[in-house]
Amino acid sequence: MRNFNSWPNPVPKYLGPKELEVVARLSSEKTDVISYDEMKQLFGKDKPVKNLVYQLKTKGILRTIKKGLYWYSPYEEGGKGKGEDEIPSILFPKDNYYVGYATMFNRYGFTDQISQTTYILNTTIQKERIISGVLYKLLRVSPARMYGLTKYYGKDNKKAIIIESDKERTLVDLFHVPEFVGGLGPAIEVFKRLVSENEINIDKFIDYADRFPFKETRKRIGYALELVQVQETKLQALAESVKDTAYISLNGNERAGVHNKKWRLIIDDLK
Fold first, then answer.
1. Secondary structure element (H or E) that encloses residue 223, with its range
2. What per-residue confidence (pLDDT) applies to 104?
3. Residues in a beta bridge with 100
C-alpha cells in the first residue's frame, strides 16, 4: 500500500467569523472535497458564499480542483488533507484514467529525471490544469490502452485512491513515447538493463505489447525483444500482428537503412 501524506497548512493570521464557521464545520465532518452547491447549502446564499469561497481560497484553505469543486486543506495541527496523489481520482470519479508517462518512468527507475508534471491518461479529457501549483496534463487516449493498471485503495477498501500503470505496462508506454528518456536508443538501453537485472516479467510485457493498439510501437518492442534473445515462440503473436504492414523507420527519422522483414522496420541509427 502506498503512503499518502497529509499536506498541513500554516494557520492563517486572520479568519473572520464565517470563515471560522466553515473551518470548524468541515474539520469536524472530516471533509476532503466540497462543491460550491454544498457550500451554499451549508453556509448561506449565493453571493455571500461566493465571497466566502474567494477568501478561503486566498488563505489556502480551499483549493480549486475544477470549476465548482474544491479541495479542503485543514490547517490545524494533526489535520489531514488530500495529497496530490489523490487528485486524479477526484478528476475522474469513474476511474477511467491512469497516472503514467514521465511520472511513472521516474518512479520505476527508467530515468533519474523527476517530472514536474503529473501525466493522467484518460478516456475523456484533453487539457492542462494547475492544481495547488502542480501541473496536470490530462491526455485523452483510446479505451484500448486502459489495461495493465494497479489500483491503490484507501482504508475502506472500496474506492481507489489512485490508479497507475504497472511496471510492464509503463515499459510499453516508454516504447510509445521514448522522447521522455531522450529517444528510442536510450529507451532500448533501459529495456536491456531491466532484462539483464531480471526486473520485469517478460511474458507479461509481451502480452501487454501484443494488446497495444499502435502497430509502430509493437514493431519497436518486437525488435527490442529480439535484441535480448527472447525465444522465437514467445514472439509469434506479436510478429503476426504486424505482418504485411508497411515498412517504417525504427527511429522515425530516416528512410535509408537495413530492412527488417519480420518487424517491417527500416533499421536506421538509434539516437
1. helix 215-227
2. 96
3. 119
CATH architecture of 17-82: Orthogonal Bundle (1.10)
Q: Phi, psi at residue 208, to the nearest 5°?
A: -65, -40
DSSP conformational letter for 143: G
Model confidence over 110-149: pLDDT tens digits? 999 988 899 999 999 999 988 777 899 999 999 999 999 9
CB 224 within 8 A of CB 188: yes
73 CB contacts (<8 Å, ≥6 apart)? 7, 8, 9, 60, 61, 62, 63, 81, 82
Q: Using a CB cutoff of 8 Å and minimum separation of 24, what contacts does 183-189 make?
A: 183/251, 183/270, 183/271, 184/220, 184/250, 184/251, 184/252, 184/270, 184/271, 185/251, 185/270, 185/271, 188/224, 188/227, 188/270
Q: How far from 52 is each of 36, 45, 132, 200, CA to CA, in Å? A: 11, 11, 19, 52
- C-alpha cell read off for 43: 453556509
Q: Quick one: which H or E segment has residue 52?
A: helix 46-58
Cell numbers placing 109 = 527507475
Residues 11, 27: Cα–Cα separation, whole Å: 14
Percentages helix, strand, coil for the chain, rounded to the nearest 5? Answer: 40, 20, 40
Hey, what's the torsion of the CAs at 233, 235, 237, 242, to 10 degrees? -140
Rg (CA), the chain: 23
Rounded CA gap, 180 and 102, in Å?
Answer: 6
